[in-house]
Amino acid sequence: MSGFLAGLCVAILPLLAAGFWLGRRTARPENLGGLGTPVEHATFETLHTASLAAPPLRAGLTEETARKSARRLRTLLGTDALCLTDQERVLVWDGVGGHHRDEIMKRLAGPLETGRGEAFPLTCDALDCTVSWAVVAPLTVDDRVHGALVACAPRESAVLVRAAGEVARWVSVQLELADLDQSRTRLIEAEIKALRAQISPHFIFNSLAVIASFVRTDPERARELLLEFADFTRYSFRRHGDFTTLADELHAIDHYLALVRARFGDRLSVTLQIAPEVLPVTLPFLCLQPLVENAVKHGLEGKSDKCHIQITAQDAGAEALVVIEDDGAGMDPSVLHRILAGEVSPSGGIGLSNVDDRLRQVYGDDYGLVIETAVGAGMRITARLPKYQPGVH
Amino acid sequence: MNSSYAVPAVALVVVATVLVGAFGLRISRTTSDFYVASRTVGPRLNAAAISGEYLSAASFLGIAGLVLVQGPDMLWYPVGYTAGYLVLLLFVAAPLRRSGAYTLPDFAEARLASQAVRRLAGAFVVGVGWLYLLPQLQGAGLTLQVLTGAPDSLGGVIVAVVVVATVAAGGMRSITFVQAFQYWLKLTALLVPALFLILAWQGDGAPSHAFEEPATFREQRVVRVGDSLDVKLDRPLTVTVDGTVDGRTHTDTALRLRAGTHHIDAGTRLTFAAGDPVPEADRRSDAGLSPSQAESRGERPLYATYGLILATFLGTMGLPHVVVRFYTSPHGVAARRTTVAVLGLIGAFYLLPPVYGALGRLYAPELTLTGDADAAVLLLPDRVIGGLGGDLLGALVAGGAFAAFLSTASGLTMAVAGVLTQDVLPSRGVRHFRLGTVIAMAVPLAASALVGGLPVADAVGLAFAVSASSFCPLLVLGIWWRRLTPPGAAAGMLVGGGSALVAVAATMAGFPGSGALHALLAWPALWSVPLGFLTMVLVSLATPGKVPAGTAAILARFHLPEELRTEVKA
């Protein structure tokens, strides 16, 4: 029987763990009653209700977000009915007296135009209707009226007017934050569009010059290089999709290196160590080629002898680990720090900070570049790429 | 059995696995040639890797043991283990690859855009992984015990330590090569001895008797009973007993046992004469230990067989260590080709264990009495061929068996540890992955010490049942049905997978019931899979407002070939 009990314990363990996790996820600070005086308790309650109403509104003023927050807002005001509108229509009516929708919308034309609050009595034929009076408080973002908060009550009340005004102002702040969120998203999108596909103009000049130098002496080589150039530029200028696979990015790096090798000959050698498992990993378009370009630049800068570049891609569980290493001049870490912080603009090319920014935007701040370097000690850049990230495909 | 060859063979496999894992990448792909370096894993290599990871202790030892004890009905196991890939090929392989998901929780998030469903899927990955790891560790313990007489749990501990060390140290880096190597190693380790065994059997005059007949001893044989058991005799039988039978102690006395049931205590030695029928063992009386599923199988063969078929056919697609390997395929079509190749490779492998089972019935029938039927594969070379040749072949088989434990266990540990670090432990990072690895292995190791020995293949069958009831509905409906909603998926997984999990836990814990209820719990797939599907469909239909916004686009991505997709975008 002991075996049975032991087995049962083992079986129940995962269930307990799941329960614990679920409990932690859904835990809410409900148990505030024991704390402080009744006034403080009321303050806690109010703040708590307000904090619950905030998250939906952070997504902007729509029918769904209004529906989610209206009940909380009504609790906050303690009225019989509360309604949120935008410029044209009632988004949600919470509480009694829903038949006043049309009347309210008619009376709102003024306040929505001027942005001033107003209070007015409601006319009603229904005998059992308990709301006979409404307070309108406009919701403004950047001095533009987006909609209105309407609180209805059985009788006139100065307190309600004041409270509705305050709540409306609080809602307006949330909507302003939503607006801010939206513009931040738009900014990121614009930045990604601006950041992508900037291949260095120097590289184009240099490549064409090298090809030109071969045209007379070695026409066959010149032709091959032109084709490499065509392949690389086609990849760089492609229009569709913000993402590519590691395999495609490596091919682009190959074309790039063929052109660079034509220019520097034996001075440059490259070794690759690629785990085939990570080749299908999706990553932001053109985010490794700049790192290789950087390694070539640093490797050959101020050195007349040879430079070696090592490119490694490893499989590390749910991530791929890409390391690009050169044995060139290296860099003072403090200078590098300022470049990455955007204080100094690097000379030409897309640059490391751009790649760093894009990786952080796509994968989150945990996934920035890790750069190890010192003057004269070469440079080693590590990028971690998650194998799966929502929205990256 | 002579362990002077087997132990070095096992050690060799362990060392080779670690070395190929650590250095395989360096040897295989250090180059300055981009064309060579950026070649993706081909379908055949990937298929060998999938097969290597998939063929576990259950396949290597368990099937032969079951065939030995229970006869040809058990051939449904290899058929089911293989046919699971057919279902995977038809319904899941290519869309799963095109979804871009690496793990099953990733798939749930990609399809349903819900963190809650993702976490639930993660919990089930951990559950299925642990259920599947348990028999691997038990199998390793059994192997080492048979080889060296070491305590039962030592082999499991060794496998656990090796796997945790290699996975946590960032080994297994070139995992595709390691796993492909393991497949060929396992195939060789079964194929070569099998050929010799068949030759020896031919030389023996190719004796055969029908599977339905009771097995008989071909020569005088001393059997030491490990756990106390009841034997059922159809006819009276005379054996020489040294130990306790029916409560009375005998020392080397010939005893005539009447037809009926007799209780034999642990440690008793029975000497059977040539030609004696092998008595039928009945382990029902073992208090505490898990009763074999054989019982309910005996009572309700049709129900048990259908339960097994459903679990293995639909469960393969939800095995966490199999799913992650599809990510290695460069695109959906390659994923399909890979699955076809897997069908071939696994089909070839599964021809061999039944050979061992059948020969075991001839040459080592007493294993049904000692309760070590899973050891048949390991013991046969010594028993049939003997001498140095037998020892060497036995060493080869032992090495293959350890390869089976190591590859499957490391794949599962990686998958479980990945989910633990990503979705359970507070923050990500290398240290947490190591912690996750330790947790992923510690729980089944503790469980294997606590829970009694269930036949290895049966225990794996239970993991399949849970996978079939939770992930099969999620994958099939997620890929083929637009109206699936996050609440529906969560409810379906909870009801289907959860009920299967409860049934499995009750069975493993030795739920003392019997009859119909026990059969229902021991073979849950037949009711839990439809239950999972039904719940998922009904709850989804009841929450039509919650269909994720981008469903049409997501399904188009799942089903359109990659080449078309880029054109659509452009």
Overview of this structure, please?
The complex is a heterodimer of chains A (393) and B (570). Chain A is an alpha+beta fold and 393 residues long. Chain A has 2 domains: 159 residues, GAF domain (Beta-Lactamase, 2-Layer Sandwich), CATH 3.30.450; 188 residues, Histidine kinase-like ATPase, C-terminal domain (Heat Shock Protein 90, 2-Layer Sandwich). Chain A contains 11 helices and 12 strands. Chain A has a 5-stranded antiparallel sheet with strand order 2-1-5-4-3, sandwiched between helices. A 5-stranded mixed sheet of chain A has the order 7-9-10-12-11, covered by helices on one side. Chain A has a two-stranded antiparallel sheet with strand order 6-8. The radius of gyration of chain A is 32 Å and the shape is elongated. The two termini of chain A are 53 Å apart. The model of chain A has no long low-confidence stretch (mean pLDDT 81). In chain B, the strands form 2 sheets. Chain B has a 4-stranded antiparallel sheet, with no helix packed on it. A 3-stranded antiparallel sheet of chain B has the order 6-3-8, with no helix packed on it. The radius of gyration of chain B is 24 Å and the shape is globular. Chain B is an alpha+beta fold and 570 residues long. Chain B has 2 domains: 352 residues, Up-down Bundle (Sodium/glucose cotransporter), CATH 1.20.1730; 57 residues, no CATH class. Chain B is built from 24 helices and 8 strands. Chains A and B meet through helix 1, helix 8, strand 7 and strand 9 of A and helix 1, strand 1, helix 2, helix 6 and helix 7 of B. Strand 7 of chain A pairs antiparallel with strand 1 of chain B. Chain B: This is Cation acetate symporter. Chain B: InterPro entries: Na/Glc_symporter_sf (IPR038377), Na/solute_symporter (IPR001734), Na/solute_symporter_CS (IPR018212), Sodium:Solute_Symporter (IPR050277).
